[in-house]
Amino acid sequence: MPRRMVDRLVLPLAGSLTTYLLLVGGGIIYTAVGNSASESLVTQMLINAIVVVGIQIYIGNTGVLSFGHIGFGAIAGYAFAVCAIAPERKAVQIPDAPFGLAEVALTPFQSSLTAALIAVVIAFVIGLGLARSGARSGAVAATVITLALLFVVHEVARNWIDLTRGGKTGLSFSPLGGVTLQGRGWIYLALLLALLVARLFKETRYGRLAQAAREDDLAARSMGIHPALQQMIALLLSVFVVSIGATLRVFELGSINPRLFFFKYTLLTLTMLIVGGRNSVTGSLVGVVIISTGSELTRYLAGPSVDLPFLDWVLRSGLTDVFLGASMLGFMIFRPNGILGDWEPDHWLTRRAARKPADQPPALRPVEESRPEGFLHVTGVVVDFGGFRALDGASLTASSDEVVGLIGPNGAGKTTLLNAITSLVTSSAGSIRLDEHVLDGLPSHLIARAGIVRTFQNLRLFPALSVEENIEVARLATAGHIAGRSLPDVELLVRASGLAELRHRRAGELDYGNARRLELARAAAAGPRFLLLDEPTSGMGDLESEQMIHRIREIAGLVQAGVIVVDHDLNFITGICDRVYVLDQGKVIAVGTPDEVSQDPVVQAAYLGGPIGSTT
């Protein structure tokens, strides 16, 4: 069996099943030795686990904090109740229900699926709004949109009396509102499926690209990732799982009212997720167990059977809410990644089963026998920032078989030119063309897919992902989007960049030199026609800079890409570049070989103050 399939499918399945058996087995043991109340506690804990795992699919993979998933749960819960309650009962509770819903009679299974699909359709509409708001990790607008959804759904549930029976009584399956779900078989099945879906989504192409965008949205777009697509898929999948959990909660309780899916339940489920670790499926279940246990303990302490004076000082009547709030606040301040961070059981298995690196690296060879020479033409680019003109008609031409340097004093517009080429800033004039393709106005992820990939002046890696995963996601981002270009092998790039021994280390744990090499390898993994490197030797000594010359030429040769490099180390520029462009005040003032540029009196007067060879 291919190693990749073992790591991405077999081991995650094994780890998920182990976690599932531990949780379910622990619940069965607790109910066997506990009192009558333990049955209800375990049932509610397992249902909460389904809901929290559903929320984790979105928050954990995208990094977007959502308060609205319980609102989706409320939509599904009411839809389930309206479809599943017998028409005779609805004739008493909601005789004037619109759209003929008072006569609808579906089985609980049919009602649950219908409710989940309704919630998913609404989630798609909300997802379009999130995409338009530029949802990304830490974005305030996206969080506010989801919070607004929660309040809107609550108010509709309170006031649409013909459909929901209002906020006081709500809907119930029987006159006494008794429990209607018998046994926990459906809960066990739903939890198993939710756990498998969440864990496998994390390993899919869409899940891994979403995680990359979660770590650094700008770098992800520059690698060819379009975060809105992955976020939409994660949202729809998570809402479906949350909706199934919500319908089971309604069915188990036998009734629904607006308070059942509002802020208190939102606080409960988010606290469970944050405490366990929002980036881990297993962590979400650990959080459910810990917070369920703590909530039950605080309810007991707040009861009349416990007489401790200090409890009155900490608000005995609201002790459970204090516990939830303190747990969320404490973990967000002191351990924001939760107890498990992004750890999964199969991560341990993967490290155990990981192959040892070979004694001799494979021969380094290009990705294909030959690739037609490509040309990048940048003509008359103008970029204004308010009243300041950063680029004033800058032009550049490069071929895919050369290394072109950009030099100039600070503020000359070198990085701005790279930003304009990769669409990170908007140019007010000029054109950018790759071969016969005009790239003007394209978003940055399409620029990357077209064949122009960059690194950054300040390191922008995906810190929570491993070295190998950083390179893999760049390859995944452009796979299927490029024509006529073969993608380099990940193993080849890991070895060519000298990172074979560090392949399983998180990118955020690398030292500066290795991080720079990883950024170069990650950019090359996208199979670009041109690599744009922004100060790749910044902060390096002379020896490291000399080594970087060979590293860049080697990796660029492997993917047969041209290189455009910005740097202040003129020894590095002269050692690596075939031609050099000199910028000053947003204009190109000289073009030529390093020797020609060094002797240009205009360059010497405007920037160097002497020949290149004499400058360090």
Model description:
The protein is of the alpha/beta class and 616 residues long. It has helices spanning 3-33, 37-62, 69-84, 87-93, 108-132, 140-159, 161-164, 185-203, 205-215, 217-222, 227-253, 263-276, 281-301, 309-313, 319-334, 345-353, 414-421, 444-450, 467-478, 490-496, 512-525, 542-559, 570-576, 594-598, 601-608, and strands at residues 171-172, 255-256, 375-385, 388-399, 403-407, 429-434, 437-438, 452-454, 530-534, 562-566, 579-584, 587-592. The strands form three sheets. It has a six-stranded mixed beta sheet, with helices on both faces. A four-stranded antiparallel beta sheet has the order 4-3-6-7, covered by helices on one side. Helix 22 links the parallel strand 9 (530-534) and strand 10 (562-566). Residues 611-616 have low confidence and may be disordered.
Topology:
Elements (H helix, E strand, L loop, with lengths): L2 H31 L3 H26 L6 H16 L2 H7 L14 H25 L7 H20 L1 H4 L6 E2 L12 H19 L1 H11 L1 H6 L4 H27 L1 E2 L6 H14 L4 H21 L7 H5 L5 H16 L10 H9 L21 E11 L2 E12 L3 E5 L6 H8 L7 E6 L2 E2 L5 H7 L1 E3 L12 H12 L11 H7 L15 H14 L4 E5 L7 H18 L2 E5 L3 H7 L2 E6 L2 E6 L1 H5 L2 H8 L8
Parallel strand pairs: 5-10, 5-11, 8-9, 9-10
Antiparallel strand pairs: 1-2, 3-4, 3-6, 6-7, 11-12
Helix pairs in contact: 1-2, 1-8, 1-16, 2-8, 2-11, 2-12, 2-13, 3-5, 3-6, 3-11, 5-11, 8-11, 9-11, 9-19, 12-13, 12-15, 13-15, 19-20, 19-21, 20-21, 21-22
